[in-house]
Amino acid sequence: MDHLLALQDKLISDSYTPGAYTHFLIHEPKRRKISAAMFRDRVVHHALCNIIEPRFEKVFIPDSYANRVSKGTHRAIDRLQHFCRHYTYVLRCDIRQHFASIDHAILLESLKTHIPEPDLMALVEKIIACGCEVLADEYTMVWFPEDDLLAACRPRGLPIGNLTSQFWSNCYLHDFDLFIKRELGCKAYLRYVDDFALFGDSRQQLWEWKKALKLRLARLRLTIHDHKAQVVPTAHGVPWLGFVVYPDFRKVKARKVRHATRRLEQRYAAYCDGRISFAEFDASVQGWINHLRFADTWGLRRHVLRPFRIKPGDLRHKKSRAATRRDQ
């Protein structure tokens, strides 16, 4: 409690300064630099989001699914499949270097509209500025029309892993969402962080929309993976958040299956060696099953889990062996 009161005093007196981040790398599904804020900073992040999130929730489009109450990955998959059933073609895009590219000046301008309080905005600016250069080594400079040499010095980047970063990502792309819905007139559009999809029955119209959205993203100093952004029939399947979604069924990406198999093999070996308990191994299995149950994967689950079958007698032996090793 004393620490919380001290933190409150610093916030009231405007003497609060965010601490340094702890960085680590993950390599699945691809290499990412994750930045973890100090505990006291995470407390501030949560308190700040509790104040400002409701203001933005009122204006966000319904089909933005990341880091929002009653949204999430599986609802985004359900919604995408709904669109697959009603439209012939899809244009799926993803933004290059998304968090590393977010421009601080543009972000702050978009936030000021809904944060009129000077003291609250000052706190927001501190947190955003603290993340500057965190992803500098992950960013490859992109030049836009009318840029001068000073463009390379523009403050940019949000630390991956922060609650505020995920929320501000939605704020940053809010105007882009409105552009797709209102100016382009796309009735079937959804976004999850930096992945988004537009649906229609005209292949030509989707190609025209691609040109328009690239120009709009350039205003935000963002680009898409152009070669990946193709117009394809929805009947061919849409790669989306680790699944391939078809109008009438879903598959898990092969890469996800390989990763899950490796992970379960590692956890099973750790269990057999007594380094983890059966409950810990079982938690890994159940977590994987809970994710896969949102696709047509009954046969896949049986195939992947078959090597990890354990007889009750073997279970007792493993448990006793694990307990013995822990006692030693």
TrEMBL record:
What the entry lists under Pfam families is as follows: RVT_1
Say which domain of life the source belongs to: Bacteria
Transferase: is it a keyword of this entry?
A: yes
Coiled coil (residue ranges): none
Q: Mind telling me which SUPFAM superfamilies this protein's record contains?
A: DNA/RNA polymerases
Listed A to Z, the keywords are: Nucleotidyltransferase, RNA-directed DNA polymerase, Transferase
Positions of the Reverse transcriptase domain: 1-245
Q: Which GO terms describe its molecular function?
A: RNA-directed DNA polymerase activity
Family the entry assigns: Belongs to the bacterial reverse transcriptase family.
Q: Which PANTHER family match?
A: NUCLEAR INTRON MATURASE 1, MITOCHONDRIAL-RELATED, PROTEIN YKFC
What is the official name of this protein in its record? Reverse transcriptase (RNA-dependent DNA polymerase)
